[in-house]
């Protein structure tokens, strides 16, 4: 393929063999697909990616009937070609090796050592594709005492410290550790894996050398705690949970209004003064217990209930309008229907509609990556199980009709 004929996408010259399932690996592959890479998603015949059945809810067709595609699966698999191959069979292993030989990247999230018995590990595949970039995603990495454990996002959120920082204060009602509302460790592992793959491809393009990437959910969870890690490492004191409040700033938290919730982030005394004046309680700015941030932090248990009563007297919309006009940092806590109806979200085109073979169209969330020269490319909706098996094997490996029929009869594909 000449440079002039390359599609105008960042990764239009890259082919990825995706042996991953559930979320971390598919999220990485979907990022690469959005950037133009050709993704060949390999699934087990008959059942496929576990998330296909993680419903309800399921995608509905034009008549309101459920399809076979769970919403969970749809979240992480757009832009891919789906093939079914039984890698436990010699014929299936041969297909994967043939595809790896003409691919730039292999992604996999099998248990440590599981693919080696099939001859599909990095050491085996690099013999037939020396410049291959091979990314393994596991719960705990390829070495260490936990390497053979299965990795689950929820468990890793706890093990990696995230839940020690998330949740209401222990001394308040509802206090205790809390996981995130989405599988944040899986998602961040997918993002870090995307970056690692692109770095390895850049290295390959400069040197001709492929490499192995060892990604672990626990590593990612530890790394992503950012300033909280440093709060501990610089003091030796483990940070504690503050719920929706801030350890060092008051008020910097959520409040219930008369019809919903808002966030108020008064970062200085002037913003606090404006906040309580808008709320009709200017005396709270003059009270020496509350006039400065250090004093407010010291007396938060007295002040916050008073502020909570004040905020309840107006609606969410009223507070947002008044606080924004006064320059007090604030924001709503939106339900998802409000998110997708938000004018900024609409202006940024964060919902897309793609053609779907059984539902007609499917609503999906757009990629947040906005590139001027190589824009995101939506190659297609999340594919049906095995939707592209025959076309991929015919186009890329030159399998004929008789070969395909024989593989079907043996239940290899």
From TrEMBL:
<dbReference type="InterPro" id="IPR023606">
    <property type="entry name" value="CoA-Trfase_III_dom_1_sf"/>
</dbReference>
<dbReference type="InterPro" id="IPR044855">
    <property type="entry name" value="CoA-Trfase_III_dom3_sf"/>
</dbReference>
<dbReference type="Pfam" id="PF02515">
    <property type="entry name" value="CoA_transf_3"/>
</dbReference>
<keyword id="KW-0808">Transferase</keyword>
<dbReference type="GO" id="GO:0008410">
    <property type="term" value="F:CoA-transferase activity"/>
</dbReference>
<dbReference type="InterPro" id="IPR003673">
    <property type="entry name" value="CoA-Trfase_fam_III"/>
</dbReference>
<dbReference type="InterPro" id="IPR050483">
    <property type="entry name" value="CoA-transferase_III_domain"/>
</dbReference>
<protein>
    <submittedName>
        <fullName>CoA transferase</fullName>
    </submittedName>
</protein>
